[in-house]
């Protein structure tokens, strides 16, 4: 988010937890045109649907 606007998102199914987390962050950074060094905090949501 920047100035209360979402600038990057990502979604992947959780297969391998860390691989999925890194993939989602990479997708959000690419969409936002940022690098990890530009990030101050990361937030996540999820559910345990079956």
Key structural traits:
mainly alpha; 50 residues; 32% helix
Kindly summarize this structure in a few lines.
It is globular, with a radius of gyration of 12 Å.
Task: Give an account of the 3D structure.
Helices cover 32% and strands 0% of the residues. With 50 residues, it is mainly alpha-helical. The chain has one domain.
Taking pLDDT < 50 over at least 5 consecutive residues as the criterion, the unreliable ranges are none
Order of helices and strands: H
Secondary structure: number of strands: 0
What percentage of amino acids are in beta strands?
Answer: under 5%
**How many structural domains?**
1
Overall mean pLDDT score? Answer: 86
Based on Cα principal axes, name the global outline.
globular
Q: Termini separation (Å)?
A: 30 Å
The portion of residues assigned to helices is 25-40%
Count of discrete alpha- or pi-helical segments spanning 4 or more residues = 1
Query: Strand pairing plus helix content: what structural class?
Result: mainly alpha
CA gyration radius, whole angstroms: 12 Å
Main beta sheet: none
């Amino acid at each position: 988010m920047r100035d209360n606007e979402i600038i990057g998102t990502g979604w992947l199914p959780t297969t391998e937890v860390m691989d999925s987390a890194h993939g989602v962050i990479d997708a959000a950074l690419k969409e936002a045109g940022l690098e990890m060094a530009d990030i101050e905090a990361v937030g996540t949501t999820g559910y345990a649907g079956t």
